[in-house]
Amino acid sequence: MTKNIDNRKIKTHKSAVKNWWNSDKTKKWQHGKMYKKDFKNHLHVLFRKNRVLELISGLNLPKNAKVLELGFGGAELAGDLLKSGYEYTGIDISKHLVKHAKKKHFKYLKNKKAKFINLSLEDKYSFKSNYFDLVIEVGAFQYAGNLTKTLNEIKRVLKVKGFFLMAQSNMYSFNNLMNFRRFLKALIWFFQKKNFFYNYSLSFKDILLSTELKFFKKYKNSKFMNFKFMTNYSEVWKYKIIKRLFSIGKMQKLLKDNQFIVKKVSGGPFIYNSKDNTTIILSMLNKTLQLLCDLKLPLIIRFADSGIILASKKNS
Ligand SMILES: C[S@@+](CC[C@H](N)C(=O)[O-])C[C@H]1O[C@@H](n2cnc3c(N)ncnc32)[C@H](O)[C@@H]1O
Fold this sequence. Notes:
Layout: H1 7-21, H2 43-57, E1 66-70, H3 76-83, E2 87-92, H4 95-104, H5 106-110, E3 114-118, E4 132-138, H6 147-157, E5 158-169, H7 174-177, H8 180-191, E6 196-197, H9 204-209, H10 214-218, H11 228-231, E7 243-244, H12 248-257, E8 260-268, H13 280-294, H14 298-301, E9 306-313
Parallel strand pairs: 1-2, 1-4, 2-3, 4-5
Antiparallel strand pairs: 5-9, 6-7, 8-9
The structure holds S-adenosylmethionine.
Residues 17, 21, 29, 71-74, 76, 91-94, 97, 120-122, 138-140, 143-144 line the site of S-adenosylmethionine (SAM).
């Protein structure tokens, strides 16, 4: 059974996601900045996109294969897929990202190789059944309140021998576990078997409150809980979005529970530094972990920054 946000909260969640991705703040995705090699902050995003492309090229799809992407963002991957000759359809909840994608890939729109549609991946799709050779989702499922419906739609529009490629950030990434505050959060997620997270704050106060234990709630307003030491790194977010948490294991289970067959589990990177001061030792360690991961050591993959999973429909 896929864990979904309970029905009472789904409406609020959906509109919060829509508002966030239509707000001015998310316009930065349009610049495609995080995919530039010199934008060190998001090297993991570039790694993920390249790995996704590697897996797709290994599928040996026909030159004019039909590809559907859910939540295309700045339409960077779309550009690579279009260059490969595929017929590309993308859906995204953000009006400004759709507008931007249409402008960026106007050439392909004109020759009818590309379509960019403003639609939520949680809605019913207007595409024919058994139509796409490949459906891709990279870093968009964390915003979905109800994945059962989405996965059913993916199965419906996929051809019998089609593939589904899913790539998501890993809640137990090595990079997360190396930061004490993030490590604490991950421990709470692990022991409380959390499927969603509600706040981004890294203050000790908020981390303790996120356990939802009565004990901490009771002392919420106490002096101790409100010392600077406890409230440092506190962050309040205007858009109250609930994000779905994924581990490599959770991704595989989600697919299996929804009648997909997992064909390949890949992932990476392991260590990256947002301030670009990664030491030689750390980058060597990253390379070694990546090599071991690529040799398919299941335990190592579980700590990759992103999990990238290739699956097919069960009836194929
Ligand atoms: C983190 S970005 C990732 C974008 C892109 N896939 C990438 O990897 O660069 C998430 C994207 O998913 C889109 N998105 C979020 N919720 C969505 C939904 N319910 N339906 C469709 N798109 C959604 C956002 O508008 C955004 O473009």
